[in-house]
Amino acid sequence: MKRRNVILTIIAVFLLVAFLGYAQKNLDMYVVRILNVCAIYAILGLSLNLINGFTGLFSLGHAGFMAVGAYTTALLTMSQTTKAQIFYMTPLIKPLDTLSLPFPVALLMGGIMAAVVAYLIGTPALRLKGDYLAIATLGFGEIIRVVFTNTQSVTNGALGLTGIPAVTNLWWTFGMTALTLIVLISLINSSYGRALKAIREDEIAAESMGINLFKHKVIAFVTGAFFAGIGGGLLGNLLGTIDPKMFNFIFTFNILLIVVLGGMGSLTGSIIAAFIVTIGNEVLRFLDESMDLGFVVFNGKVGLRAVVFSALLMLVVLFYRHGLMGTNEFSWDAVMNKKFWLRPFTRKKPLAKGGTRP
Hints:
It is globular, with a radius of gyration of 22 Å. By secondary structure, it is an all-alpha fold. The protein has helices spanning 2-26, 29-54, 62-77, 80-86, 103-125, 130-150, 152-155, 170-188, 191-201, 203-208, 213-239, 249-262, 267-283, 304-319, 332-336; strands at residues 161-162, 241-242, 291-292, 297-298.
């Protein structure tokens, strides 16, 4: 059984690599862009699921960490000539005005900077619980956006950054998604991961067992922020231009939607939901445009796509109130046994004495 799973995994990885190689060279640029966004959203969903799903915290500051990673990576990869051109109102501070690093180093620095900011924010904020923590982290995200808008000599203010090298491709996005998944699986299956789940279930019981609540919350918060910064860096170098308005609280809610739809506490569920949400939004784009069907003309309305997509998501949440995957993870055993969608909370209770259900 284990050997079969290993073989199937190797085959799946080989097919994925072959598809990425074909897609990068042969598919339309629009399709490639959508696949890149899907993978970036998967990274963001995985990182937020670690905080909200596995640790039980309610954080709404993910857009702020993305902004930190995106701006750091962009500034470190842009050429000196490009920086001089876009910072024409207020010169860029030293040494950023002349500093230019390779993309992998800049991306790593973007994640580290997001993690440092998360530690500075999390040290006081993680002493709060529930809705209070959500409000505090939401406020942080808005503060970051306002700060970036007004720091002309670092972020170019409301004008944002343009001319960012378009380095991000399918190899980077899917490779970082795989790396994020491997790191988070290793963390969750370690003693730290079991402690995080204990905190999620009952903080008082976890503390009575000797678990340092604050320490483990900070670990989850900082790790999630690190990968959010990585996702932000990939997104900035994919789009080629960023500005503070991109990273508003709606962005965080979109990532939270992916986590809820996939299942709070399911890593593979977040990946599946990221593809569903991203591709679904693009498939329904025709609702915003007029269509001539021959026998009738449909006048599209701007925003109708969001209404229909939201209604469909509401139906999914109603019928799968724990998300598509619940707390389960994808496994070959489940696929072979045709129990891929069976979740623990759907199991029936055992019969009571006398043969009747309680």
